[in-house]
From TrEMBL:
The lineage of its organism: Bacteria, Bacillati, Bacillota, Bacilli, Bacillales. InterPro entries: Spore_V_AE (IPR014204), SpoVA (IPR005562). The gene is spoVAE. This is Stage V sporulation protein AE. It comes from Fervidibacillus halotolerans. Pfam families: SpoVAC_SpoVAEB (PF03862). It comes from the Bacteria. Keywords: Membrane, Transmembrane, Transmembrane helix. The chain crosses the membrane at residues 6-26, 85-114.
Length: 118
């Protein structure tokens, strides 16, 4: 059990460290860094490398933004196998819709409860 926590922390920290290095050394903007990490996650899933990482590190691989790219490609591939080319489009939305919907709902609730300082 402790080993799972340890490797989750190490892998998640490594992914975040890559993002921080992109900010500091490559001088990328937050949007560019975010996009690059999503694309890296998508490529890793396309090469069947992200699922073994999730099995190994658990939340250390599913919490960072690279997991969003993984979810997009994973959903597209699964639905494409079932429904053909239309499944590529619907699969991406099906897999990611709950996370995006909850982010919108919680942001709306936060906007109702708190005043902005700007």
């Amino acid at each position: 059990m402790l080993a799972m926590f340890f490797w989750s922390f190490i892998v998640g920290g490594f992914i975040c460290m890559i993002g921080q290095l992109l900010f500091d050394l490559a001088k990328l903007t937050p949007g560019h860094t975010l996009s690059l990490l999503v694309v890296i996650g998508a490529i890793m899933d396309g090469l069947d490398l992200y699922e073994p990482l999730i099995d190994f590190a658990g939340a250390g691989a599913t919490i960072p933004i690279t997991s969003f790219g993984n979810a997009l490609v994973h959903g597209a591939i699964q639905e494409a196998e079932k429904h053909g080319i239309i499944g590529v489009i619907t699969g991406m939305f099906e897999v990611t819709s709950s996370g995006i919907s909850s982010a919108i709902i919680f942001a709306f609730i936060g906007a109702l409860l708190f005043k902005s300082k700007g």
